[in-house]
Amino acid sequence: MADNAGHGLDAAFAAMMAQPEDDAARMRYYARLADGMLYLMLEQEAEAGSVQPVMVDIDDTQVVLAYSTEERLAATTDTPVPYAELPGRVIAAQLAGQGVALGINLGTGEGEFLVPPEALVWLAQTLENKPQDVSARPIGFDAPRGLPDSLMQALDAKLARAGGLAQAAMLVAVRYEGGRMGHMLAFIGAAPGAETALTRAASEALTFSGIEAGEMDVTFLAPELPVVERMARVALRFDLPQPAATVPHTPAAPGMDPLVPPKLR
Questions:
Q1: pLDDT tens across 202-212, in order?
Q2: Where in the chain is the domain with CATH 3.40.1350.90?
Q3: Coil, strand, or helix at residue 217?
Q4: Under CATH, what is the fold of the domain 2-128?
Q5: Could you give the CA distance from residue 9 to residue 2 in angstroms, rounded to a whole number?
Q6: How far is CA 50 from the centre of its chain?
Q7: Which whole-number Å values give the CA distances from 265 to 33, 56, 65, 79, 84, in the listed order?
């Protein structure tokens, strides 16, 4: 699983390097960086949810070292080193505002990238953006139209990682009472308590698609509601991956639980 995530980041990195002026390609890289797991090199083994990353000086800037795969981390040192496997979004949130940079895959010759301090601040602030609650009554649905490929790709990537949180999602153009028009993403059969995570995923897909001032409404519907059948006639449907089997619960490693992120010292 980690290896696949590493390859996904590599593909996004290659696209960004091939199109240095393409904002959408750069946004896709940062989206992959935030969603994926990174292997953070540590000074010592993590203790009580606190980790102390290795820092090196590059051009008078302190840089924290992280790698997209365990193999790449291991390739940079002759002896085993402690590390923490953490989501990129957690690392960005913990480092933002400290004046440090994040070095991705430095010393490996593959996918090497330096995320400067100001980019970490931007990424952390972007991931903190909270969707606004709105109340409006839809009166009609149509097939989605005029949406850029970058948004479709961002939604595909986000929803592919939302397995088990809902049965499906449907994207439609919507008309509301009062004349407002827009697009709506409806999650069908969402798991209890999954609304916040799914709303955040949809919001981040819109943000990282590179659309300026874009909007997309999100709603949650039970599969048996008549409106679901009406929407299905015109909707673009996304089937979310479903877990094959339930696995026993195990305590989350430091940083795996977004409610209890590790402390970087």
A1: 988 888 886 65
A2: 2-128
A3: strand
A4: Trna Endonuclease; Chain: A, domain 1 (3.40.1350)
A5: 11
A6: 23
A7: 21, 14, 14, 23, 13
Average of pLDDT values for 27-35?
A: 92
Alpha carbon distance, N-terminus to C-terminus of the chain: 28
* 226's tokens: 């008549």
- Which of 177, 180, 186, 179 lies closest to 139, judged by CA? 177
CATH number, span 138-239: 3.30.70
Kindly list the distances between the CA atom of residue 244 and the CA atoms of 11, 158, 185, 241, in Å, as whole numbers in the listed order: 27, 19, 25, 9
* pTM of this structure: 0.73
Q: How far apart are the C-alpha atoms of 223 and 218, rounded to whole Å? A: 16
- Average pLDDT, rounded, for the chain: 86
